Amino acid sequence: MSDLVSTPISDEPSSFSVVVNGSTVELPDEGASLLDVLRNRLGLTSVKDGCSPQGQCGCCTVLVDGQARVSCVTPARRVKDRKVTTLEGLDDAHKWADALCATGGSQCGFCTPGIVMRLAATEAKHGPLDEDRTKDALKAHLCRCTGWQTIVEAAVDLPKHDPGRDLDLAGQRAQLEGGTQQIVAPSVSMGNAGFADDTAPADALIAVMGADGEWVVAETLTEARATAGKVQGRRTTANAEPPIAVPDGDWDLTLSTSWVEPAYLETDASWCVPGGEPATVLANGGAFGAKLSSEIPQVAARLANKHGRAVRVLASREDSVRNGPKRPPLAAGINADGSGVIRVAQTPGIAEAIAQVAPNLDVEEVQIAGPPTSAALRAAGWAEALILLHAANAAPIVAPNGATASATFDGDTIAVEVDCGTLLDHAVARSYAIGAAHMAYSWVTAESLTLNPDGHVEDLTVRSFNIVRAVDTPRIDVTFVASQDQPINGSDAAFAAVAAAVWQQRGLGAIWPTG
């Protein structure tokens, strides 16, 4: 379906009034969600769309008469004559922005506006937040970058932004860790980090993917999704199983990993004007390498040229899960002398990634049915190889870039030490290490995706990714080796070291997730 959709949802829609951030506005009753109205009609871009309309990531949280509500599953007509507050209208938003910047509780900044609204509502109801109440409030949210702990620290202590802190150096450290251009500032916590869909022209057409894989273009998101027949993704009740068999052999240690979802919060989005350069999908973060091969910018350019107007292209959460690249699953056998075989999903560059750190391991690439895979995802291949060698013979965790890390886990606290050169900014370096530690813990213990026999992903909701929540995350203590060496990425080494420590603590179970 390639023609522009122009059929209105209703010929003569009724209207209703609502108070948004203190001002009364009249809105047509077009069947849109509150999220759609706030973002696309009123231009309030702090309200983010991370899973719409699943209502599971929390990025679109606003206040309705002072109560936190997920706006993507709230019909706009239900807030008739009520008071809606977004981050743009929150009186004390600056204190939350300062605190999150000070602790590193906001990295890319996509999820934090919704989190701030939830925390502000919780504070207004219960008074100053403690650790338990903050973690309980975060049950309604997903943050993939920070690992939760720095968010909790910001909410409990509410530290102020240090005017003497060099945020340019902080941005340099963030860029090293995130692998792409990044900024660090209180404004990032407000959602003002330049995400592609926030910067699109207000009069741009909107393109979404239909069930047949073709792009449907319409004047509004409501029209486009209605015409495309978007259906909310589901979570299957079937069990996830590792897709690759362990190589034959008499091994001292074996490991089989499952399909997992990178779960970056900002789904792929871009926009372009005719003859122009499309907006980057990377925005203020690298999505752990998962967006590097995104086709969305090229689609935006093609559709803009075709229609002679600016076009916004938006991937749904289900689109990102079905079509986005995954970490290549693998199965391996290894002996104490370091010899062994890793059988891995066929992926360009994966054998080379493994060989960088484990040249004595044989790599067998195999074809399996499933979503696309990529060696660009965080430490793909080489982390697993180092984890296996560390478990087999206590080999050190040394990343290909020379960063080193070590970790221990006693069941209550993860302790990780990282040597990644000059820190540039301690809060940012610590935040990325904590985020990597959380990702590693969650990967080893909980995360998996279920695929059907044809290789199509069946777990399409945010909750079905099984990412460990704040209330279930162990304490993470990070120390850094003092160094004047050139600064390099350290969070990937921390990711591998923590995964190795958690696997050891879990008894070196042969299948991940161990839980």
Helix content: 25-40%
- Radius of gyration, CA atoms, in whole angstroms: 23 Å
CATH class placement of the largest domain: Alpha Beta
- Sheet with the most strands, sense and barrel status: 5 strands, mixed
How do the strands line up in the largest sheet?
Answer: 1-8-7-11-10
Task: Name the beta content range.
Answer: 15-25%
Q: What's the average pLDDT? A: 95
Q: Which ranges are low-confidence, i.e. pLDDT below 50, for 5 or more consecutive residues?
A: 5-10
Span of the ends, CA to CA: 43 Å
What's the total helix number?
14
Structural class call reads: alpha/beta
Assign the CATH architecture of the largest domain. 2-Layer Sandwich
CATH topology heading of the largest domain: Aldehyde Oxidoreductase, domain 4
Number of domains: 3
Number of strands: 18
Q: Estimate the global geometry from the Cα principal axes.
A: globular
In short:
By secondary structure, the protein is an alpha/beta fold. The protein has helices at 34-41, 93-103, 112-126, 131-137, 149-157, 167-178, 186-189, 221-228, 296-307, 317-323, 350-357, 382-393, 426-445, 491-505; strands spanning 4-5, 15-20, 23-28, 61-64, 67-70, 83-85, 205-209, 215-218, 253-256, 269-272, 311-314, 330-334, 340-345, 361-366, 397-398, 404-409, 413-419, 475-480. It is globular and about 75 Å long.
